[in-house]
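Fold this sequence, please.
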Amino acid sequence: MPDPKLPGLQQLQHVVVLMMENRSFDHMLGALKSINPAIDGLDGTETNPDSTGVPVTVSRTAEYQSQLDPDPDHHFPAVDLQIFGGVTSAQNPRRTPNMQGFVKSYFNQQRSVQHSHLIMNYFPPEKLPVLTTLAKEYAVFNRWFSSIPGPTLCNRAFAHYGTSFGQVSMDVFYWNKQFKSIYERLNEAGHSTRLYYFDEASSSLEVVNLLKNQPALFGTFQDFLDACSSNKLPEYSFIEPNYTDHDSPDGMGELIASDQHPDHDIRAGEQFIADVYNAIRNNPKLWPNTALLIVYDEHGGIYDHVPPPACTPDAPFVAQPSATGTPDPFYFDRLGIRVPAVLVSPWIARGSVINEVFEHASIPATITNYFLGNYAQRSKRELAANTFLGYLNQSTIRPGDQCPRFQND
């Protein structure tokens, strides 16, 4: 529990979470190690064997678009290969993560040895000016992992509920009510909260299912921008990007997907992150009392060198082999692959690097602890998750000229 005497927490009124899509830490932020050695990124010597046994070295040649097509596999069996390099539990019951199966996994998508090497590419900082600037200017998490080694739906469930209720796939399912979503908890306690989606074409399947009987808790991204400009931002906001390329509702042009899911254009996501940041940063009444977390739901099958750690099992949930697609059940006792995560606030020291382990269950854990205090009816994973608001630990707020601004597109 963060120290409530911290000046930043005494002023904190709003927490905003922006969850992007399917990129690993090393892919997006690994190059920052050359700028700040405290960041657990890449030194340029990391390798993975390809399907012929040849080691493939990481490369600073990631492209904004066109490289990761087809979409790298990030379902449970593929992630198991990526983490354990093809070593099965039958071969070694005590197998440990070696992070040596990414190229082999991507080869399975197209059966092209040359194309499979692209999974080892990463971005130099100058190609991601928004995300890397925020990571350098505020706080970057060295150890934020997806909640399970699997795809989007089950990982986003941890951000909403603190559990995926035993699910490890992309199957649409009805969430049981053993644990309430963070939005229901806040709403029932009289706190304001909204889940902002970009537009109807981009509202993800799990969100439609998540709170379909509570439309009052939903808003569009334009509603978020309006709330920021009118000082009516809820206490907790969760923002989703635009997931698809499609015609704009007014018929005046095309909306480009901004989620950064492969193989969408990374630059559209950069602009979207800047738009969210600007909406908060440029309002002098909002900026001092708001914390923004930018995080990605899972790694999208893209290389990262840090082995996921064990974690508190999400008992009583177990995914059987029929669900995992592997010979073994999954007890939700280890995390998925590391993802980019950046915490933004003028109460954070410039260049902060956070080394504690975090996962998506940390989101409802943090929000619940801060706004509701002792709330018992939560999953074991959420109750064990670290919380992040204690990093708003500066004794004085940073002057405005020390907090960057981005130009609007």
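The first helix runs from residue 7 to 11. The chain has a mean pLDDT of 92.
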